[in-house]
Known about the structure:
This protein is an alpha/beta fold. The chain is about 45% helix and about 15% strand. The strands form 5 sheets. A 9-stranded mixed beta sheet has the order 8-26-25-24-9-21-23-22-30, with helices on both faces. Helix 13 runs parallel beside helix 28 (about 765-785). The protein is elongated, with a radius of gyration of 40 Å.
Amino acid sequence: MERAAPDLEGQPAAANAFGDLPGRLNAINEHKDNDDWAELGGLDGAAAALRVSLHDGVSAAAGDGSDLESRRAAFGANRFKQIPPKSFFKLWLTALKDPTLIMLMAAALVSTVLGVAVPAEREDSAWSEGVAIWVAVLVVSLVGAFNDWNKDRQFQKLNAQKDIIEVKVIRGGQQLTIPNTDVVVGDVMLLDTGDKIVADGYTIEVHGLVVDEASLTGESDPVKKGPEPKEPWVRSGTQVTEGSGRMLVLAVGEHSEWGRTMALVVGEASDTPLQEKLGALAAAIGKLGFIVAVVCFIVLLVRWCIEEQGFPMSKFAEGPLEFFIFSVTILVVAVPEGLPLAVTISLAYSMKKMMKDQNFVRVMAACETMGGATAICSDKTGTLTENRMTVVKGYFCGKMYDEVPSLDQLPSAAGEEIVLNAALNSKAFLVEAEGKTEFVGNRTECALLVMVRNWGQDYAALRDLNHEQTVEVYGFSSERKMASVLVRRGNVLRLYNKGAAEMVLSRCVASVDAAGQAVPMGEAQRQQLLDTVTSMASSGLRTLCLAYTDFPEADPARPADFFSKPHEENLTMLCIVGIKDPVRKEVPAAVATCQKAGIFVRMVTGDNIHTARHIARECGILTEDGVALEGPVFRNMKEEELLPLLPRLQVLARSSPKDKYILVQTLKKLGEVVAVTGDGTNDAPALKESDVGLAMGIAGTEVAKEAADIVIMDDNFSSIVKAVLWGRSVFTNIRKFLQFQLTINLVALIVAFVAAVSSGETPLNVLQLLWVNLIMDSLAALALATESPTPDLLDAKPHGRDEPLISKYMWRFIFSQGFYQCFWLFLIFYGMPAQLSAFKVVSQCEYYTANAVPGFCCTPGVTGGPMDCSQYYQPGAQPVCVVDPDGSCDIEEPTYDSICPPGIANCQYNAVDDYYNQLEKDYQNAKEDDQKRTNSMVFNTFIWCQMANMLNARKIGNELNVFAGLFDSHVFWVIWVLICGFQFIVMFLLGGVFKVERQSWLEWVVAILIGAGSLPLCLLTKLISRLLPVRKSSKQQQLTATERAVAALAAGGSLRNNDQPRRRSGFLRCCGGSASKAQQPETWRGPKDSPEEGATPVGGSPRSTN
C-alpha cells in the first residue's frame, strides 16, 4: 500500500538535521522496542523524522540537511571495521619464531660471545662467523616476512571486494541499483527472493516475504515478515528465501545487528587442501633432514673427540659448537618451508589475475580444485547464451506472427491485458545509462518490458498506477516454472500469470481470439498450441505463455488465507511469445577446449527440451551419441537405468534445483571432480555439494553467491574455462617448485652426509647453506609460483582426485638432476685435491717438513746413522716429528715426559710446546686455505647447478624447450638475474664472510659449464623417455571416472564413495547392464519399464563433436 509522504516543508535545516534521532533510532532498532517505535509514530513517524518518502525514497540532493552525506555523517556509513592486517614488524617477529631459526640464533649468540670473550678466538676474529650468521638469519627472516606481507595485502584487496554486492533501492522516485556500501539510513530498499539483506530495517510492504535468519539466531526455520502480528523487523546479514517486499532502512554498518556481531568476530583463512598436503610433505622431508643432521653432528663430534683425544673445552667453539651450527643449518635447508609458501604465493597471484579474467574467487581452495575438474554442469541462460533476450515472434490472440505485432494489430482489450501482465507481473526494470539500456533483474521479464516499451507504453507508470491495487505477488519458482501477481481490477481480483509455455497451457481452459473474446480451449487447440511451442523451441527460442484468471473480490466461502498461495488454474491464454537469446560467440570454442582438456560438459537448464537440444548442439555440447533427459524423468529413474546413461548424458532440460543437486552428488560419488554453475536461490544446495560452485555475478542471487566458491563476474562460460586454466596453473607451478626444491634437498643432504662420514669435512659451510636456503625457499618460490598459465595446460587431461603430487616425470627429473649434481660435486671435492696441484690440500707431514725450523722434525742421518735433530731435543727425548725413510711422518703432541726424560736438566719443554702449538695453528690455517679453494669451487658449482635447474624445473613433463615463455614471466627472469648477480657479489666481495676464495676465470667457466650441463642432460633424458616404448594404457585407464564406475558396477563390483561424505543413504546400489551407443542424440521421455510412458528416442541431425 502506498503511504502519503510526510510533510517536509518548513522543517529547519541545521548542522545535524536529525538531532538526537540517531541514538534513539539505534536503541529502538537494537531492542526491537515496539513501544518506543509507536511513540515515535510508527512507520509514518519514523519516515517523517528521517525526512524520507516511503513511496519515493531518499532525495539524493536534498537541500535541508538530509542529503546522502548528511545521513552518513549522522547515522554512519554502511561499512564494517576491517580486521587490521598484520604489520610487517609483527610478521617479521613471527618469522623469527621459526624453531630452526631460533636454534641458529642461539648458536650464533654462543659463537659471537666466545669469539669476543676468549682472547685466542678474538685474535682469529672467530666472532665474525657468529655475526655473519646473525646477518643471514636477518635476511632470511626479512625475505620471508616480506613474502607474507605482500601475500596478506593481496588477499586483503581481494577479500574487500567479496562483500561488495549490488542492491535495489528507490531514490527520488526511481528504482536504482547501488553498492551495498552506499546504502544510508532512510533508504527504501527493495527485497526479492535470493537477496542478501545488507542493513537493518522495518517492513513497509510485503508479498509472502520469508527471511532466513539462521546466520544471526541459529534458528533453522525461516521467519515470515510483515506487519504485526508477523515480524516487521528485518536484520542485516540475513537472506530472503521467498517472496518480495520493501523496507525502510533504520541502521547500517556497525550500528546494525550484523555489524555488532561482526565486531566480535576475528578470524583467519584456513589452509587449502593443497597447502595441507604440502605441509605434510614438508614435515616428512624435515624429519629426514633432522635424521641426517643428527647423524652428521654425531659423526663429526666423534671424529673430533678421537683426533683431540678427549673433549678439550678450550676448543669448544671450533669443534662441537661449529658442528652444532652446521647440523642446524642442514636442518634449515632440509625443511622445505617454502612448499606451503609457494602454494600461498601462487594462490594469491592467481586470485589477483583471475579477477581480471572475470573470476572472483571467494574460497581460496577453489583455485586449486578447479584445475582438477573433470565435469562441468553449466546453466544455459546467460552462461552459454548472451542473456540479452528479445521477443522476436509469437502467437497473439489466435494468430501466429513471425515478428512482434504492433499494439494496434491486437484487440485493444487483449493488448491492454498483455501490457499489464508484462508490467505488473515482473520485478525487473530497465535503466538507461550512456545511451544504452541496462537490464536489471530477470532477463526474460526485461525482454517483455522492452516489448511493452516498444509498443509505446510506460511500464513504470503502470506500476505506480496499480501499486495500491496489487494484492499479492507470487514470485517465480523452479517447481512451478511460472510467476503470478494478483491485482484488483474493478470488482474482481485478476491473477496475471506467465511461465513456461507448456506448463501454463496445461492449466488453460480458454484463450483470447482475434476478436479479443475469451473462447474455450479444446484439446485439439491445446495440442496445436503445444506444436507451435515445440516449433519455436526447436529453433532455439525460449517460449513463454501469458495468461490470466479472475476471482470474485469478495467470497464468503473463501478462507482468509486463500491467497497465501497462488491458485494458477482455469487460466485464459493471452499470448505465447518466442524469446531469442543467442549463443555467445566464444562458447563453442570454449566448450571444445574443455572437451579437449578431458572435461565433460553438461547443460542443465530449466528450458524446454527442444530449446535445450538446439542450443546444446549449437554450443557443441550435444554430440551424435549424446542423451538429453527431462528433469521429471531423470529424478524418477531407477539407479540401474540411470547409471548406464550418465556417461552419455549431456543435456538435462526442464530441471529443478533438486535435479541439479542429485546429478552433482551422483557424479561426485562416481569419482568425478564436479564444477557446477548456478544463479538462483534454490541452486545453493547444488553449489555447496559440488567440488567447485560457480555463481553468476550478473544474474545470480546473493544466496547463490554466498554458497559458491567462485563468482563468474560476466556470467560467461569462457570465463569458466579461464578458471580451469588458472587452477591447472596453480597445480603445475607448485609441481615446478616441488621438483626444484626436492632436487636441492636430495643433493644437499647427500653431499653433507657423505662428506661428514667419509672425511669429517663440511663442503658447504653454514652461510653458504643459508644462502642456498634463501634461494630455494623464498626467491624460487616467488619465481616459480608466479608463472602465468599457458594454453597448452588445457591439452592435458585433468588430474582429478587421485593424481599424486609428484609424477613419474618429476621423479625422473629429481633423480637424474640430483645424481648429476652429486657426481660433479663429489668429483670436485675428492678428485680435484687428489689430481690437481692447485687444489692439493697439504698434509701435516708435508707442512711440518717444509715449514718447521731445521731439525724440529728428526730426519734419517745422511749415512744412515742417528737421526739429525735440533737443539730442541735432549738425549733420550721423544721428538715431536719423526720423518721415516719412506717420507712419512710420525707426529705426536709433546708432553713433559716425552720431552724431558728423567735426569735431564734445563729441559726445553715450554719452548717445544709453544713452537708446536704455533706450527699446528699455522698448519690448520694453511689446510683451511687449501680446502677453501676446493670448497669454493664446490659452492660456486652447486649454485650454478641450481640456476640451470631452476630453468629446467619450469617444465614438469616431456616438454623439450624449457625456455618457452621465459620472458613472458617477468618475475621469474628478474629473480633469476638477481640471484646470479648476488652470487657474483658473494664470490667477489663477500669472500671473507662466506669463506670462499676468488675464482679464476677458468674456474668460473668450469663451474658455469657444469651447471649448464644439466640443461642438455634434461633434454637427453626427455628424448630417451620419448624413444622408449610407451606402455599402452588399458581401456580402463582411458575411461572417465564415471565410465570406470559404471563399468565396475556392470561387472558386479561395488561403488566406492571416493572419500566423499555420503549425503544420501543407500544411493547407487550395484547394478548391471551397459549403455548402448545410439547414432543420434536421444531425448529420453522415460525408461523402457517406466509405468508412465515408454522410452521414445527422438532423432535429430546434430553435428558430431568429440
